[in-house]
Amino acid sequence: MRALIVDPEAPGRLRLGEAPDPIPGPGQVLVEVRHTSLNAAELFFAERAEPGEVIGFDAAGVVVAVASDGSGPGVGSRVVGFAEGGGFGALRAMDTADLAVVPDGVDLGEAATLPVAAGTALRALEQAGPLLGRRVLVTGASGGVGGFAVQLATLAGAYVVAVAGSEESARGLSELGADEVAIGLDTVTVPVDVVVDTVGGDQLVAAYALLASGGSLQSVGWAAGREAVLPVGSTLGSPAPKAIVSVYNGGGLTDRHAQLRRLLDLVAAGRLRVPVGWRGPWDKIADAVDALGNRRLRGKAVLDVE
Ligand SMILES: NC(=O)c1ccc[n+]([C@@H]2O[C@H](COP(=O)([O-])OP(=O)(O)OC[C@H]3O[C@@H](n4cnc5c(N)ncnc54)[C@H](OP(=O)(O)O)[C@@H]3O)[C@@H](O)[C@H]2O)c1
Q1: Which of 25, 79, 182, 209 is deepest in the core (most CB within 10 A)?
Q2: What CATH number has the domain bearing residue 290?
Q3: CB distance 60 to 116 below 8 Å
Q4: What is the pTM of this model?
Q5: 120 in contact with ligand 1, CB cutoff 6 A
Q6: How many angstroms is it from 58 CA to the middle of ligand 1?
Q7: What is the pLDDT of residues 14-67, one digit of tens each?
């Protein structure tokens, strides 16, 4: 099959090439992939994967062979799903527990952005507990996870503070529902109940300091690639515990189908927008990697398999 394969000589270490066709296991359908999406995590894994490997978490397409155990949707169904690898291939064997049927009217390319980015945002916010009337701060709000976190927190009834790195990357965050948009954290002074942190480093430290008593920082990622050094004593003194909680939305979770179902229903109802900052044929992967890797991407990158 054709696939975006890891090539240490290619820009972004990914190029269109050939890879063996996947062989589905008993609980897997075979999907003809029509779209995939690029996440920050794939840049990380492209640096570490072996030449020729097919990475990629998200993929949306059409079922071309049913699962031999009888689970999952039939041939011709439009589906989207997650797996740890294989999303950048023209064919993908997908666990039926890790995919969902895409409703009519939802663009398959937009659906391809949901498993990692929107799924992680949803998981982070749910871990934080009820959000109605609470103050939620999202760092890296211009990014893939961040753009969905802003919207989902708004839908849940929170007052949302969206933090971006520049005026340019802050554009469009109010339209996603943010009540306040801040450039960096220096101007944010009112305590918040929940932080969804995708940046790490100094922003994690500053956001933790803003947490109200009993609040939680949901640690999604470390986009800044910098360590976070908490000042001495900063974790002490709050009457109720202030937590730093890790967020995990990778393989091995049992609620992926239900999570995707909910996200797709929100998109189908027009209540959740997919902020697409880059879309193009998959042979233009170098452009997408460049935009994401150099912080010029706002929202998600969709790769069309052509
Ligand atoms: N825990 C999990 O299961 C899970 C799942 C998905 C993603 N993640 C992690 O979460 C993080 C965000 O993922 P994503 O896909 O949303 O990434 P993304 O689209 O690149 O968004 C990250 C945002 O962070 C901001 N940022 C601040 N400093 C940065 C720096 N030095 N370099 C790059 N970006 C910087 C950027 O916004 P500004 O330019 O506006 O500052 C960017 O929009 C990554 O570390 C990823 O690996 C974890």
Answers
A1: 79
A2: 3.90.180.10
A3: no
A4: 0.98
A5: yes
A6: 16
A7: 999 999 999 999 999 999 999 999 999 999 999 999 999 999 999 999 999 999
